[in-house]
Design a protein that fits this description.
Rossmann fold; 8 strands; SRP54_GTPase_dom; cell membrane; nucleotide-binding; cytoplasm
């Protein structure tokens, strides 16, 4: 089977292509200018490529790794035409993503040995955290799983109300308390409720404050500890939601949250409204944390399971 031809529904693939359109157009317009009049990949082309990757929010460290890989191939092959650059870039970026994104999932799977499968969601306010939780709940429910939401972002009344709106829209139960309640108490009640209902998936929202990392760390640690009193090995995933349209700011948020808690996977949202889709490549590589979901549109179906082959295929299509 061709390296890039993996099973993926045509509708989802079309949405992914459309969602990455701005990133792709921006990247390739820069690339075509960089290699105009050039037939060979030389130092000047590589310097220009480095600048393009950094300006596409791939990140400096990841860009240098990509350039080094291409330089190795240039030195081996002696002559490499610029017409080959697309394919080489495609292969090297796919290789880089493979180091942290080993799976090839195309649907919303629940680990067979985790019941309920508990996801704790972290991220600053405004990145699309609540929307991502709502869309996740919808996708898991569509896949036939029983879902319970927990509104443990008790710092803002709006956060609780927004999650309630999504729970009502998707048609899943939600556990909530008053604003200012102990987040760990909400998480505890949510897990107890989920166990009693024989639920398959539990998604816990948490506060998105970063102004004091120590407080955030303590709060998330407490939430985890209290959840483990109900279900021993929880949370099974700590999902960090990042806004792809913020580019380098998303890197900083990833840095802060990975320092505050053990992030196991990422969701990168709002890729459709930006030319900064390269941030997916950089963040996945730099933080060694797999990208699990990407948001490529505003529709409820537009949260997709991240598939590295399909992403790279859409990026270079």
């Amino acid at each position: 089977m061709n390296f890039f031809k993996k099973i993926f529904s045509s509708e989802k693939k079309e949405n992914l292509d459309k969602g990455l359109e701005k990133t792709k157009t921006s990247f390739f317009s820069k690339l075509s200018k960089a290699i105009a009049g050039k037939s060979k990949v030389d130092d000047e082309v590589l310097d220009n490529l480095e600048e393009i990757l950094v300006s596409s929010d791939v990140g400096v460290n990841t860009t240098l790794r990509i350039i080094e890989r291409i330089e190795e191939r240039v030195s081996r092959d002696k002559y490499m035409g610029t017409d080959e650059l697309n394919l080489i870039l495609r292969e090297e970026i796919a290789g880089l993503l493979s180091e942290t994104n080993s799976g090839e999932a195309t649907d919303f799977e629940v680990p067979a040995d985790k019941k309920p499968y508990v996801i704790m969601v972290v991220g600053v306010n405004g990145v699309g955290k609540t929307t991502t939780i709502g869309k996740l709940a919808h996708q898991f429910k569509q896949a036939g799983h029983k879902v319970v939401l927990g509104a443990a972002d008790t710092f803002r009344a709006a956060a609780i109300d927004q999650l309630q709106v999504w729970a009502d829209k998707v048609g899943v139960p939600i556990v909530r308390q008053q604003m200012g309640s102990d987040p760990a108490s909400v998480a505890f009640d949510t897990l107890q409720s989920a166990v009693s209902q024989n639920a398959d998936v539990v998604i816990i929202d948490t506060a998105g404050r970063l102004h004091n990392k120590v407080n955030l760390m303590n709060e998330l640690t407490k939430v985890k500890r209290v959840m483990q009193k109900v279900v021993g090995d929880t949370p099974h995933d700590v999902l960090l939601v990042l806004d792809g349209s913020t580019g380098q700011n998303a890197f900083e948020q990833a840095k802060q949250f990975t320092a505050a808690t053990e992030v196991t996977c990422l969701a990168v949202t709002k890729l459709d409204g930006t030319a900064k889709g390269g941030v997916v490549i950089g963040i996945s590589d730099q933080f060694r944390v797999p990208v699990k979901y990407i948001g490529v549109g505003e529709g409820i179906e537009d949260l997709q399971v991240f598939n590295k082959y399909e992403f790279v295929d859409s990026f270079f299509k």
